[in-house]
Each structure stands twice: as C-alpha cells, then as structure tokens.
C-alpha cells in the first residue's frame, strides 16, 4: 500500500460520509502494520454535538476489529489546503499512533502535506502523564 493509494482510498470513501447538515464530506484511510486498510467517512447527527469525524470513525473501526498497530493515515476533504484534523481527532490519534507515525493530509486535488504525529499534536497529554512513565 503506497502513500498515493492510501490517499486515493481516503478520497474515495468520502462518498460514504453521512453529512446531511454540513455537506462537508471527509474521508480517512488507515494502514495497519498487518497490511490492512480501514476507511471511514464522517457521520453526522441532528444533535450536532455527537457528530463523529472521519478520522475517529476510522480509528475506532480498526480498534474494534482488533487492530492497534498502525503505519500511516490519510485524510481527505474538498478544501483549498490539505484538510487539518480537529483537535479532538488529534488527541485520539495521539493515544494510538506512534510519535513518528506519518499522517498525510490532502484535498481532492491530491495536494498533500505530511506530518508526523508529534508535529500534529506537540506536547500532548498522554498515558505517561496520567499513569507515570
Ligand atoms: O478533519 C476533519 C474536520 C471536520 N470533519 C467533519 C466534522 C463535521 O461532520 C464536518 C464539519 O466540521 O466535517 C472531519 O470529519 N474531519
Ligand atoms: Zn475531528
């Protein structure tokens, strides 16, 4: 699974996003160490506060299928610049992604910026703060 293929999966899964309110479809694709790819789109709700971003849908899909070791993630939306994940998703990513893991942020023109986890959420609160290291 190349970076480009992962990006194409993220762009393609936008069609399955459930976005009747914002009409803003986001797609994510997550490559596991075992070589599987999980994908997901954002899922909204009439009670706006329980909307779930594509990134979290995808991470939770993988975790609930027993996968917890990841190689890379791609996130795509129809934005001017590569789509930046929200703060909540960055926190969830930081729980499960290694600090060196690459996250490819892109748009439908495939303009892509790649960040390491530690760059997307520096000085993040984590397990070691809660439980000690
Ligand atoms: O990185 C992002 C940013 C936003 N959204 C979703 C949340 C909501 O459904 C819609 C508008 O914010 O886009 C994502 O899925 N990922
Ligand atoms: Zn989010």
TrEMBL record:
Xref: Gene3D superfamilies: Cytidine Deaminase, domain 2 (3.40.140.10)
Active-site residues (renumbered): 55
Cellular component aspect of the GO annotation: cytosol
Pfam families attached to this UniProt entry: dCMP_cyt_deam_1
Lineage: Bacteria, Bacillati, Bacillota, Bacilli, Bacillales
EC number: 3.5.4.5
Domain CMP/dCMP-type deaminase: 1-128
GO BP terms: nucleobase-containing small molecule metabolic process; pyrimidine-containing compound metabolic process
Role of this protein: This enzyme scavenges exogenous and endogenous cytidine and 2'-deoxycytidine for UMP synthesis.
Species the sequence originates in: Oceanobacillus piezotolerans
Catalytic function, reaction form: cytidine + H2O + H(+) = uridine + NH4(+); 2'-deoxycytidine + H2O + H(+) = 2'-deoxyuridine + NH4(+)
Binding annotation for substrate: 42-48
Annotated keywords: Hydrolase, Metal-binding, Zinc
Cofactor: Zn(2+)
PROSITE patterns from the UniProt entry: CYT_DCMP_DEAMINASES_1, CYT_DCMP_DEAMINASES_2
Name used for this protein in its record: Cytidine deaminase
Entry's family note: Belongs to the cytidine and deoxycytidylate deaminase family.
Residue sites binding Zn(2+) per the record: 53, 86, 89
Class of enzymatic activity (EC top level): hydrolase
One GO molecular-function entry: identical protein binding
First and last residue of the signal peptide: none
